[in-house]
Amino acid sequence: MAERLTFELVSPERLLLSAQVDMVVVPGTEGEFGVLAGHAPLVSTLRPGVISVYDEKTTRRIYVRGGFAEVTPAGLTILAEETIDLASLDRAELDARIKDAEEGVADAISETARAAAQTQLEGLRALAANL
Asked: Tell me, what CATH number does 10's domain have?
């Protein structure tokens, strides 16, 4: 049996996932990258996108926004500002989040706030396009 990767997904509130998996594909700011057991050490910031977690016969997809990924000899840890498990995603909930993000862009009082809100909106729209 091939060596497995220790993977942890953490949000500001709690540990969301801790498991031994085959591979994780991460949406880094410089592009997507796959992590297998024995991967070279690496730290990357995240862009809004979907993490794909491969485990034997299943693939779990989780949307992440903000944060970073760290690969060490011990495994992969992702610290994400926001996560949405696509298996439990309700289309109406996603549409409501998109509407809130659009309002956030319109209501932003500074260019920095507007850019952050626009990034969130683009990530949610990309997520909706991939469902």
From this structure: 2.60.15.10
